Amino acid sequence: MKVTYYGHSCFAVEINGKKILFDPFITGNELAAHVDVNTIEADYILVSHGHGDHVGDTVAIAKRTGATVVSNYEVVNWLMKQGVEKGHPMNYGGSWVFDFGKVKCVVAIHSSSMPDGSDGGNPVGFLIESNVGNFYYAGDTALTYDMKLIGDYKRIDFAFLPIGNNFTMSVDNAIIASEFVKCDKIIGMHYDTFGYIKIDKKEAMEKFNLAGKELFLMKIGESKDF
Ligand code: NI
Ligand code: MN
């Protein structure tokens, strides 16, 4: 699967020719100033929760591309009120088979309110299964024992985990999370974008290496096969 990083928690994953975009926050991210948001393609946009650094450019990209937005019920409702045409609401424990693979909506321990202050439901993570591999996108979350269920339920090839601390898991907790989900290939997200979440990247990679795991800190705009 080809993974492209657009900064913060935004990644595009290509699965069976479909482009799945996660948490597109590009406009307003100074670190992603060189990314032209108007060129990003998407067949689906998966949004983990209502916060501005995750909903971000979803409305603009969905309107331009005609992508289907997948999120919790409240976030999808809100996005459709902003003019998004195709939405697929989900909630914890539910799964749905799309044309690229299966999405299961899993627990994230965080909060969720929309940029205008309206109710953003509960934050979610996504477990993606496809015939070319499986992965976990954690969204914004604390470390939680619920992650053990993911490790017991499916073999996953790689996982997107937040590592920036303060609002989400830290590097140390992300290492424990990677043990819970039984995955040795971690793509870091939700770090360095703003002051509260600046990390020492070299130290983070060393810590993962010491734990026998690999931490990938992709460059913004970079693509890599996983
Ligand atoms: Ni958040
Ligand atoms: Mn966030």
Structure write-up:
This protein has 226 residues and is α/β, with parallel strands linked by helices. The chain has a single domain, classed as 4-Layer Sandwich (Metallo-beta-lactamase, Chain A). Helices cover 21% and strands 28% of the residues. The chain is built from six helices and 14 strands. The strands form two sheets. A seven-stranded mixed β-sheet has the order 6-5-4-3-2-1-14, covered by helices on one side. The protein binds nickel (II) ion and manganese (II) ion (MN). Manganese (II) ion binds next to helix 1. The site of nickel (II) ion (NI) has 6 residues, from loops.
Heterogens:
nickel (II) ion, manganese (II) ion
- Tell me the strand percentage band: 25-35%
Reading off the top of the CATH hierarchy, the class is best stated as: Alpha Beta
Number of strands: 14
Q: What's the gyration radius in Å?
A: 16 Å
How would you describe the shape?
globular
CATH-scheme architecture: 4-Layer Sandwich
What is the average per-residue confidence, as pLDDT, rounded to a whole number?
A: 98
Secondary structure class reads: alpha/beta
The H/E string reads: EEEEHHEHEEEEEHEHEHEE
CATH topology: Metallo-beta-lactamase, Chain A
| Poorly predicted regions | none
Distance between the termini: 5 Å
Describe the main β-sheet briefly: 7 strands, mixed
Q: Give the assembly state of these chains.
A: single chain
Number of domains: 1
- The CATH homologous superfamily is called Ribonuclease Z/Hydroxyacylglutathione hydrolase-like
Question: Which bin fits the share of residues in helices?
Answer: 10-25%
Helix tally equals: 6
Biggest sheet strand line-up: 6-5-4-3-2-1-14
